[in-house]
Request: fold
Amino acid sequence: MDVRTHETMVTFDHPFRIRGTEGVLPAGTYRVVIDEEQILGLSFIAYRRVATLLHTPAVAAPQGRSESLAIDAADLEAALPWPPTTISPR
Reply:
C-alpha cells in the first residue's frame, strides 16, 4: 500500500493540552508528522490519514527525553490557535 508522510511545524503561543497526553505541554513550536495511506479501488487517487504524531519537546526547548506522541487529528485541530496562522508546511 502506498504511504505518504507530511511534516509540519505548529506553534503554540501558550501552554496547551491535547487529549491523550500527560499534563500540559509548554508553549513552543512542535513538529507534527502525518502519515496517510492510499485508498485502493477508486477511480481516482485518494488518501486517508492513518497517524498523527506530535514530537516533543518543542523544537527550541532544551533537548532531554524526546517522544513521538500518537494523537487524534481532531484533538490537534481543537488545540490549535485561531486563526491558524502559525502552521507552516516544512
Q: What stands out?
A: The chain has a mean pLDDT of 86. The chain is about 10% helix and 40% strand.
